[in-house]
Design brief:
CATH topology: Growth Hormone, Chain: A
Order of helices and strands: HHHHHHHHHHHHHHHH
CATH superfamily: MFS general substrate transporter like domains
Number of helices: 16
Radius of gyration: 21 Å
Number of strands: 0
CATH class: Mainly Alpha
Shape: globular
Largest sheet: none
Strand content: under 5%
């Protein structure tokens, strides 16, 4: 596929395609965290079913399991058949599967609908990331990444706030939030039409052929970015998957307290993400990642001290601010290492890693929480993110030493 841009050079917030892609990116947060405020009430309503406590917790990350399995194939399909049509099909499936939890009769059937929802997320996320690479480059791409993180956080604040209000009425009502993306379709149809006017994305069509070494290079780099993404998301996902139970165990009204806690995280993240472009251009991507990891380490440290608003709110704010600098860095790195004809494939790899981290998080960390307590696990996250922050400085120091040798 040629790197032809089918979007004008107007500001991002005035471009229909950019708006459509920003809205599509919000499905990532909607898919998982939206039902978090309803989890304790859902567990209580299905208390008679075997394994209700575990299955209810898994509802949050269940879509991620399917994304892990489907995203690599969705990425290949997006490269072969087109990204716009993948977005439209994914949105339609998202609406149907996501809202099904409002009326399905038991916990098992709701879990199945959540798994199907993951198929929709895999389709939309891989196509969306690939289209970002097609549409934007250079400073416009970094600007879009910052705006995307802002959109995800602010929409998460909206979705979780709405879900929190609905959960106070019934634990089933938050599932209706998943019907909202049907409103995105006109913008996505426009993107699909514009894509059809350009060359069809069907492999490498620019007359060049990558050598085996080049293929190994991009694949290895993509795997490295994916590994970093997976471990980061695994620990970050302690917030939407475990915070409701942390607050509930410490005497809070879990639905409203979770809404406030996650709302603080997303509001802070949305604001900080606006400066990602400026910060990454001034400090460099490595230093920006280091700052982000340091903020996340500080946030989990504060959160571990005490389960009171004096610590929960600052901790959530620091974690949200740090992740707002780290998350766009993942996608920016992924698009940097991806050849233009492999953007769907690379986005599939990184999407798989992102959601694999969400799947692993409750499976791996819940037993540690049950044995050692929330504070111990939060302090372990602090140590891990501190190590990541220090590690992010290594490439910068290596380049500086290399420059000094060449002078």
């Amino acid at each position: 596929m040629t790197d032809r841009k089918f979007v004008t050079r107007r500001p991002l917030w005035l471009e229909a395609a950019a708006i459509g892609l920003l809205l599509t990116a919000t499905l990532k947060i909607m898919a998982n965290a939206t039902i978090s405020p309803a989890l304790p009430a859902l567990e209580a309503s299905f208390a008679g079913e075997p394994g209700a406590a575990y299955l209810t917790r898994f509802l949050v990350s269940a879509p991620s399991l399917t994304v892990v399995l489907v995203a690599p194939f969705a990425g290949l399909a997006a490269d072969r058949y087109g990204r716009g049509i993948m977005l439209i099909a994914g949105i339609l499936l998202f609406v149907v599967a996501g809202s099904a939890g409002a009326y399905l009769p038991d916990l098992v059937s709701i879990l199945v609908s959540r798994l199907v929802l993951g198929v929709a997320v895999a389709m939309t996320m891989t196509a969306q990331v690939a289209l970002v690479g097609d549409l934007f480059s250079g400073s416009r791409r970094s600007a879009f990444m910052g705006w995307q993180t802002t959109a995800i956080n602010f929409s998460g604040l909206l979705f979780i706030g709405l879900a929190g209000l609905l959960a106070g009425q019934s634990p089933r009502l938050p599932f209706l939030v998943y019907a909202l993306p049907i409103l995105f379709l006109p913008l996505l149809i426009s993107i699909h039409r514009q894509e059809k006017q350009s060359e069809k994305p069907n492999g490498n069509q620019d007359g060049t052929d990558q050598s085996h070494g080049a293929k190994v290079h991009w694949f290895g780099a993509a795997i490295s970015v994916a590994a970093l993404t997976m471990f980061t998301v695994m620990l970050f996902f302690l917030m939407p998957s475990q915070l409701p139970f942390y607050l509930d165990a410490n005497g809070f009204d879990s639905a409203s307290a979770t809404t406030v806690g996650l709302g603080t995280l997303m509001l802070t993240g949305g604001i900080v993400a606006m400066v990602f472009k400026r910060l990454s251009e001034r400090l460099g991507l490595a230093a920006t990642l280091a700052v982000g990891y340091a903020l996340m380490a500080a946030g989990f440290c504060v959160l571990a001290v005490d389960a009171s608003w004096l610590f929960v709110l600052p901790g959530a704010a620091l974690i949200g601010a740090g992740y707002a600098l780290v998350q766009p860095g993942f996608l920016f790195l992924a698009l940097q290492v991806a050849p233009k004809e492999r953007r769907g494939s690379v986005s599939g790899i990184v999407t798989t890693a992102m959601f694999l981290g969400q799947v692993i998080s409750p499976l791996l960390l819940t037993p540690f929480i049950q044995r050692f307590g929330f504070s111990s696990v939060y302090f372990a996250a602090t140590a891990t993110f501190t190590a990541f922050s220090l590690g992010a400085f290594v490439p910068m120091f290596q380049r500086r030493r290399l420059n000094q040798k060449t002078v």
